[in-house]
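# nightly structure sweep
# worker-07 picked up a monomer target from the shared queue
# config: single-sequence mode, recycle default, output format = structure tokens
# input follows
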Amino acid sequence: MAILCWSSFVAAQQAPADRDPRYNASISPKYNASINPKYNASLNPKYNASINPKYNASINPRYNAELNPQYNAEINPAYNASLDPTKGRWPGFVIFDLDGDPLGAAVRANSRTLLYFDSRGKWTGYFVSNGEGGFNWFSRDAEWLGYLLSNSERGFNLFDTEGEWRGFLA
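# output follows
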């Protein structure tokens, strides 16, 4: 029953227009080069080693167990039910694809970690702070999948490791 309710909740979500890059060009990497990693090298882990988990072990959950929910029960929803969005209220963001369709949620586990739950309420990955205002995106097995960059309007844009814009968090 909780999964059905969760799925209905996620499906009904819409991003507020001021936090939706389809309607607010200032938060769209398509129209604002200063927040686009293809045009701003300081935001791109390919060119900025300090935010790249392949080169900075302190932000890589494979080498820093404190950041890895598999080894840190405080940020693991299997051991901390308050982090499971299917079980009640949760702080964080709804994750949308580029068409504005909801994909799931990013639940704030602590100041350095967001947990990624898909639209069915299944925990599929997490985001770890890069120390510079963004987050790196990992699978549950700590495989680096991409990153989040602040859109400067209380949300984030989601990119894959190649810098392709994949979605947004509002």
